[in-house]
Amino acid sequence: MSTATPGAAAPAGPAVPKATGRGGALGTRPWVAACFLLPALALLGALVVYPIGYSVYRSLFDASGDGFVGFGNYQEVFTDDRIRTALKNNVVWVIVAPAVATALGLIFAVLTERVRWGTAFKLVVFMPMAISMLAAGIIFRLVYEQDPDRGVANAVWVGVHDTFAAPAPYPGAHPRPNGGLAASGGGAFTTTSPVRAGAAVALPLVAVKPEDAGGAKEAIPARDVGGKVTGTVWMDFTRGGGGTAGKIDAEEKALAGVRVEAVKDGRTVASATSASDGTFTLPPAADGARLRLPASNFASAYNGVDWLGPTLVTPSIIGAYIWMWAGFAMVLIAAGLASVPRELLEAARVDGANEWQVFRRVTVPLLAPVLAVVVVTLMINVLKIFDLVYIIAPGSSLHDANVLALQLYQSSFGTDVNQGVGSAIAVFLLLLVTPVVVVNIRRIRKEREGRR
């Protein structure tokens, strides 16, 4: 056993590189790093820093750019009705669109995890991301078309509606003038005098569409039946002219399926529906009553919902946005779900948790970082939404669907050009985005620190 003696030299350790005056520990020269960073810094300055600085500067001047107005443009941002509507719609966008898209993405990712065709389903859901905003806007402008023969949304809606509520048999039809029927409110028509049993009643109608009466039988006069009220409903029109008004002429068509009600003292005492030859028969209770043709016989055909009207235009456009971006959320969440330890899920099931409890108490908390990334990304994206609103919203509803990015464009390059106000909106939009970006950066830093 040897001992170190005083004054003896210590054994030499591994050589440690020393920093030189030209660079750091790895010998990197500062000017070399600057040469690599300079192009990126130049692009960052030209494309980001300069536009932001100029927008702030320009927002302090009037429309001409010569008169200094200070914060006058910012005051207009908060007092102009159009801009306030745009701000309100942006709040709706930020709250609804990211939340719904993320929720759908989470549901799709979880439900397709264990099915064979999950990959194919994810591909179909993600495909809208490959479509530009312009193309998506054109597609959904047609989807939301008011005419059910052109708009898919209203075609489905009208189909469902007509399944549970039969359409009127003769929309737009009405009695012949001086034909014994008068309007009685709400679109209904009532005989001007009471009817008597044993005497047939004539109820002539006009303005029946040819397609509604196509294939109908020829009308025949109703027979007088003792103790009962009878009558005929027909289209009092002879092709080519001629015929006698109020009388059933040859080749005049019967109107089948017309509901006829007998009304006494404001109460319906009997009702019947006209047969294929236009005739109807009411029981003796109808004696002395007035006959009423309800408005349901003549109501206009149901044409669906005004998706792009002032009330629903913003939710409709948000629906188009979710159609595009739910796939983006699903892919990111599915990637995060693939990294979730299966042992934790199985342990929860062994402990007696059902699938809903496993999803709510284990899966969602483990996916919280991924969900935060998706929500923040979509929030930043919807604050800049422009294309879909500009393309989908018709001119009559554009004001109601307005958002800040669209108003920025209209104020800067629209009919009332004022780039001072447009720049103020741009700065305000930047201030709205900044907190979201800051929160995202802090979250990323915390994740990095947690991994160390």
Question: Can you describe this structure?
Answer:
Keywords: Cell membrane, Membrane, Transmembrane, Transmembrane helix, Transport. InterPro entries: MetI-like, MetI-like_sf, UgpAE/MalFG_permease. It is found in: Cell membrane. It is a multi-pass membrane protein. This is ABC transporter permease. The chain is built from 14 helices and 9 strands. Helix 7 links the parallel strand 4 and strand 5. The protein is 48% helix and 9% strand. By secondary structure, it is an alpha+beta fold. It has 2 domains: 227 residues, MetI-like fold (Orthogonal Bundle); 124 residues, no CATH class. The strands form 2 sheets. It has a 5-stranded antiparallel β-sheet, with no helix packed on it. A 4-stranded mixed β-sheet has the order 1-4-5-8, with no helix packed on it. Helix 1 runs antiparallel to helix 14, helix 3 packs parallel to helix 8 and helix 13 packs antiparallel against helix 14. The N terminus is likely disordered.
CATH architecture of the largest domain: Orthogonal Bundle
Q: What is the oligomer described by this structure?
A: single chain
Strand content: 5-15%
Question: Can you give the mean pLDDT?
Answer: 87
Compute the separation of the termini in Å: 43 Å
What share of the residues lie within helices? 40-55%
List low-pLDDT spans.
1-10
- Strand count: 9
Adjacency order of strands in the biggest sheet = 2-3-9-6-7
Structural class: alpha+beta
CATH top level label of the largest domain = Mainly Alpha
Please tell me what the overall shape is.
elongated
Number of distinct helices: 14
CATH topology of the largest domain: MetI-like fold
CATH superfamily of the largest domain, called what?
A: MetI-like
Radius of gyration: 37 Å
Largest sheet: 5 strands, antiparallel
**H/E series:** HHHHHHEEEEHEEEEEHHHHHHH
Structural domain count? 2
